[in-house]
Structure formats: structure tokens, C-alpha cells
Amino acid sequence: MSVQESVTLDPDSLGQGESAFPVVARCLSQFRLEVDGQPVSHWRAGKARALFQYLLVNRGRLVHKDRLHEVLWPERDDHGSSSLKVAVHAVRRVLTEVQDGDGFTLLHQNRGYLLRTDGAWVDIEEFERAFEQGRAAWVAKDHDRAIMWFQRTADLYTGDFLAGETGDWITEQRQWMRGTALRALSALRTETLESEDWPAAMHWCRRTLDLDPCHEGTYQTLMMMHGELGELGRVLSWYEVCRHRLRTDLGIEPSERTERLLAALMQGRSRMPLTSSRPR
Length: 280
Known about the structure:
alpha+beta, four-stranded mixed beta sheet, elongated, 11 helices, Arc Repressor Mutant, subunit A
């Protein structure tokens, strides 16, 4: 299955796309809230935007006000200040001004807040749904459908979660979503390797290295594929990139497996088996 000949996505099975919703929220890459295609940029209070982002990640779940204080004002011990009320009021004003009854609803319940996303399209919600659908299909041995969903997962991952923004909870969520994207890419790479579709496999390898430049197994895969094509210069080039990345970023050398693979390929010997990775 090549990149051009990949499984056709069935709109009915994948659900409605973002174009069907007047209110759209994106957290993958830079944060954007859009209404009828127009970005919302004015958040009034300083923490209103951050509050909305955190509630968006925890959509549909009640978040206690103490937790919100810990996330938004980690340097403060006093959870009795009015800062949270000010931020909540600002979020509500923004949502009231930009929405016409559809999209997001912010509720106050049992000393906490809950954000409902009925009527809005949220990229992280679609991203998580696509991966879970893919994993379920894979377990059911419906591999064609699984690949369709994993491809959808990869397409939705347009960049790291809240790129350019900082915070402990942001870093944790970013790592989690990056890991999910990597698992989907691993399944896509494995599928195309098994069918010996080198162009598609190289495409997924490139996507993997965009997210994890030190993923040694991906360099091994690229070396093996170029060896199969008789492109020994490219084999050596990818080995050098791998060694540089591992040394510079992690302070380690390539594994013995990588060294043995390089020696075998440069001597024209048959390829070494690579470990297949399945979604977990």
C-alpha cells in the first residue's frame, strides 16, 4: 500500500469533519479557537486562555477548583483567592460573545468546573478517538480498517500539543499525545514494510523521525530499505545521521544491532530481520 494508494477514508465511518461545525478548537500545533472560520484572539483575563485549554483537555470531566489553582497558579499556596473566578468569568464572556448557542458550555458543579464540548469539533478529541478505533480494529484483526484509523490519527497530528507553550501539565500531555502518534506511525510503518512498499514505509519513517529524532529502530528500517534498493550510500548516510543524533542528543553510541546491520548491508549480505511493532 503506497502513500498514494492508501486506504480511502470513509466519511461516514470517520464521523463529521471539522467543516461541519461552526466552532472548532485545535490544540495540536499552536492553539486556535475558531468560530465560523474566524480565530478568537481576545481572552481578556491573563489566565482565561490557559483555563480553557486545561478544561478542554479534561472535557466532560469535573475538575475541582483546587486542581485548577494548582495548574494555573503553581507558585501560590492560597486557593481562596478570586483569581479563578475572574478567569472563569472571562472564559464565559468569550464563549458567550463568540458562540450562538452551539459549541462549548462551562458548568459549575460541586466546587469544580466542567466543560462540555457538544456541538464543537476538537482536534484532540478526534485524535484520541481515531487511535482507539484503530487499536480496537487491530485487536479484532480487521487490519484494513485499523490502518484507515491509524492513518487518520497520523493526519490529525499536525504538531505537538500546544506547541510553544509551557507548563508541567502541558509537557505531560504533549508527551502522551506524541507517544500515541508514534504508536500509530509504527503500525503504519510495519504494515507497509510487510508489503514491501518502500516509498510508503519511508514516508512513515520520516514522520516518525519528525517526532522522535533518536528513534534508532527507524534508522535501522531506513538502512534496511535502502540496502534492498542497492543504495549503499544512503545506507551509510542514514547510519551517520543516527550516530550523530544519538551522540548529540543522548550521549550514547548506536547499538550493536545497528552496527551489525550496517556491516551486513555494506557487504551486500541479505537483510537482517527487524522487529515489528504493533499498536498497544
